[in-house]
Each structure stands twice: as structure tokens, then as C-alpha cells.
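Re: your question from the hallway

Yes, I did run it. Sequences:
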Amino acid sequence: MRTDPLFQPVVSEARATRSVSLTFNDQPLTVPAGISVAAALLMSGISRFRATPVSESPRAPYCMMGVCFECLVDIDGVPNRQSCLIEVADNMRIRSQEGARDLICQPMNVRTVEVQS
Amino acid sequence: MSQDRHKVVQSDVIVVGGGLVGAAVAYGLARGGVDTVILDQGDNAFRASRGNFGLVWVQGKGHDLPDYARWTRSSASRWPAFAQAMMADSGVDVQLKQPGGFHMCFSDKELLERQARLQTLQDTLGDYPFEMLDAADLKARLPLIGPAVIGASYTAQDGHVNPLKLLRALHTSAQAKGAQLRSSVEVDRIDCAPGEFRVKAGQRCFVAPRIVLAAGLGNPALAQQVGLYAPVAPNRGQVLISERVRPFLDYPTINVRQTDEGTVQLGDSMEEVGLDDGTSTEVLAAIAKRGVATFPLLRDVRLVRAWGALRVLSPDGLPIYQQSSKYPGAFVVTCHSGVTLAAAHAQRITPWVMGGPRPDELKVFSGDRFLTDKVFSHAH
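Structure:
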């Protein structure tokens, strides 16, 4: 099965775009500004975004338009965010979503952010 | 299916309705070796079986009609063996768990009413264990409970299943035992002759000496064609579903439960809005507010789905079970607790349909009880 990213930036546009720096599981990445987190991770070669809650299978984005919920990641301590709907920002700390969110042990000092649609 | 067109399909029993009620009855019949055809409507039907809350719920039911409490308990106690049978016949695990359930109370008045209702049941039925818990007792059992909950009732008889897996398990099990499931069948009319019912559906025709009407909100119109009275009407419930979260709640409650796959299901609304299965912001907001009051850690949970579904309620909220005296062999089976009562429907209704005695509890559930001027109120 093919696992390399299906999404490649148009080179002329990528060059013209400002960059932002963020991390995925503590790995520093530099990506074009203005794109979605999902697109940014895919173009950085990341194919495992999360593990499913029931069988812990690896998952990557599928629909890229907010429907399938396959692209869930933890962003700045807020779990289960749909990375295809969120724009990259400087200093974002992104982590893979490992299984279901734990409501009991919530990270401290994290303000929950509404899903943007 | 195309092979039905322009030909007559014969069977021992026709079950009109492929939801939880019809499929449970058909599964019971098929397990008994009865040649059974299930006629299911299409995707435009109001399918309570696809929108419900999944509780196998006993506590509080039948406080004003002991036979309803007996019937409900007879089903809940049969549920473990019933789930095992479906597992064997279909390979589908419906995720039955019966750890007991909590009914939360938010005021002294609610708590007193709850206690009176359960005490009435215990006085009438004898063996009916229940516990009334104050806030401290409840906190000891459910550490995540919110301060707005001042107490709760608990009975060990309650449980829950995954209702979508249940519907699939029933369809698969019934067919594994030889029942024929026909989808997208719109019944036009039922012709009755002595010992023979002919169901016309477009070009198709289904014939059997016995027929069971389990068509939910379709029952009123069908029942009158076979000499029965089944005045059920829609009652809307709205439901919220959360993102999947790690297990935090081991027990079902009347308004919040966590499913086997981690989502949290919230809902307890009742509305009479006719055939409208939509949602409304104010009702969903009230459901969410009550859910967060029950378990404050739900405050930040992300909601991913909401829907409305239509309960099938008779004027007193209780089931209707009756054989037609005008056309013997025609039965109506309709209720709104299709999950809780599924085991009884599969195991205890079917001998009656095949000519055996009617289960003792069911005498009071004829549809003819509504042929009076009395004004009914829901016992739900």
C-alpha cells in the first residue's frame, strides 16, 4: 500500500509563502504559513497522525475537509482536534493523538479551544 | 428484490417491520423453525431502531401497572442468554452490560418521587431490590458525579447495549436461522381471508396464514386493516454524541452513558412534534446542560453528532400486544422499549404467535384499552 504523501505543494507558491515553525511529537518542522495542520504534516512526510481508540491502528487524514475525523491530533494540549480544519501557526506544539482522549487526566493550564468550522 | 416481482411469496409468518421489534420477533420465529418473511421499509422510514439510547432499563417501569414491570423484568433477565444466542448465530457481540443503573435526581422533590415510585413497585412485586443514595453515597459509587446531583436511585437490574450492533445482530441472526429479510418494501394493503393474509406491496405479494405487525409508527394504518386498534404516535427524543474518550463511566444512567467504543451519549428529552425527527438548539442545549451537571468533566468534551428520533408511543406510553379477534392469526406488537423488550419479544411472543397461550403479563396490553373516552397520560 502506498504510504508516501499524496499532497505536494506547488513549488512556485511554496516559495512565495512565509514559513512558520512548529513541532510534531517534539520534532521541529518548518512549513508554509496559511495551510492546514494536516497538509503541513503530510508534506513533511508524516503519515501516522494518530492511533484509533478501539484497535490502536495507525491513521492518517482521509477526507481533508472535516468529515472523516481521521486526522485527529493534539494541538497545544487540546486533544482530538481535526487537523485538516486548523491553520498552522508559529510555535504550535502538535502531538499524535494516541487512542481516545482521557477526560479524567486533563493536561493542566490548557484552555479548550472551540473547533473552527 | 427483483425475484419477488410479479410473483407470490409464501411463508408461515409475515412480520411487517424490520426494526428492533419486528426483527426480534422474526428471530424468535426462525429459531423455532418457522418459515418467516420480514418486510422492512426503505431509508425514508422513521426508524426508531437507528436512533435510540440503547438502555436495557427496568427501574421505575410499571409503577402504575405491575404487569409492565413483570414483563420488562422477564425480558431483562433473559437478556444474557439472548445476547449469547445472537453471538452464536451472527458473530455480533452487542456489548451487553448489566452492571445496574442510576437515575439521577437534582432536587429533593425528584428524589422523593423517585423513592415513592420504586417503593410502590417493591410493595407490589415483593422481590424488587433498589437503593436510594444521597449525595455522599453517590459520590462514593461515582466519584465524578457533579455537586448539582443531590441523590440517585440505583437498581442492579439495569444495563445497556450498543443498539446499532443489536439491530445488525438481529437481522443477521434471523437470516442465519432461515428468515427472509426483504428491504424497501412499502406495504400498500393487507387483504384478510380465513386462514390467509395477503400483503400487497407494489407488484409484490406476500401470503401467509399468520401476520405480525411490528411496523412502529406504521402500525395504526396497518392494524385497522386486520381488525386491530393500535393508536401509537410519535414522540421525539434528541441525542448528543461526543468524541471518543477513555472509559470513565462504568454504569448506564437515564441521561448519560458511555458506549462500548468510547463515545458519550446524552439525551432524555420528550417532545410531541409530529413526524419531525429534526433537532432544536434549545433542547440539545438543555440535554448538554443536564449532562454536564451530572458529570462536570463533560464540560470540555467535544460533541460530534446530534440527531432526533421518534419514539413509538401509545396514549399511555405502554406497549400494545393483541391478536385480532376478527381475523385470528393477525397480531400487533408495538412498544417504545424495543431494546429492553427484545429478549421477551424473541422468546415469549413467538410461541403465542404460533398458536400457544398468550404470556400471562400481556392480557392488559390489548389495543382495545384505548377504545374509551378516558384521557391517558404517558407512564414513561
